[in-house]
Amino acid sequence: MTHKDKRVNVYLEELASSSATPGGGSATALAGAMGAGLVSMACRLTVGRKRFADVEDELQGVLDEAEALRLRLTDLADADSQAFDQVMAAYRLPKETPAQQTARHTAIQSALQGATQVPLETALACGAVVRLAAQVIEKINPNALGDAGAAALLAEAGLKGAQLNVAINLAGINDPIFVQQANEELHTVLCGIDKDKERVFAVVSGHV
Amino acid sequence: MTHKDKRVNVYLEELASSSATPGGGSATALAGAMGAGLVSMACRLTVGRKRFADVEDELQGVLDEAEALRLRLTDLADADSQAFDQVMAAYRLPKETPAQQTARHTAIQSALQGATQVPLETALACGAVVRLAAQVIEKINPNALGDAGAAALLAEAGLKGAQLNVAINLAGINDPIFVQQANEELHTVLCGIDKDKERVFAVVSGHV
Questions:
Q1: B19 vs B88: CA distance, rounded Å
Q2: ipTM for this model
């Protein structure tokens, strides 16, 4: 069963269990999905209301993006567990003969690259959620400011958790070009994210 | 149906909907619950293994605390929605006669105090999760360092989100003693939390 089809309760119990999946990677993706959901909520509490008519089109566009990110991050929570299971499976391959050792090494490297790709995509999607929150924070229904603030916090935690998982996986990867490209992608995601989050909080604090 | 009995998917859809609950308060409590679950996971990947025998008792104690916090935060995700629904109900009370206005004012103030208590408890529990992560970070199975790092990030986001919701509710409360006590409680929770989080990250980064 996919994580998204489990009851919240059951997912949390599995997270707390000694089973390797779901783990931190899956939970950070779900934190990002909650962040995206809260951006959607803030947009939906704004669109279709006369006094916000001038931002209607922009917020409808942001809502569509946030919904796509929510679904993407929900899927990434499952993809992370699958990718990690493949890493574990590769480590369990036989390593008695030189041929087996070579095959195992190749399988581990390939699985680690797969397991790096998932948190990279999670980081990318979480970064996009923080950016959307910053884009709309001055335009949304003020009743939803707390929700938009929580959105930015959860997506930021998702981003930093994903960044951590990228670093942990990269530490085991031998291909220097893959490592460099992954680090460059991550750098692009992180660029400007602190400013975006500060912008969200300056507006939210101004209304409290 | 309680949030914890819903499928992850359904909860996220409801979060993204224009319905006022679940909202940011519920999502931040669930982020804290995921953080607590990841502390439990890190402890369970450590206890019962010979090479970690010297920290067995301490980690078993932390595991028990983390599990209690996980269940508490899961319940707070529901309590937040209920408390917010009561605020909304109080605002909808009739306000035509002076007697109705007085009754409505009293109901709103009482509901706002209830709606402040929930994020205060969420902040307290999330702060406890960050502290547990800091307590065990140098003692757990190194395989679980990424999970413990994610735990600290998610619980910190939960704490800050809860802090935001406390501030938003306090802004509407007239009783200065209640406001002061709530702010003092929050101050106690926040004290030392940044150092605890930095400690977690110094150890995790040292292993990457």
A1: 12
A2: 0.96
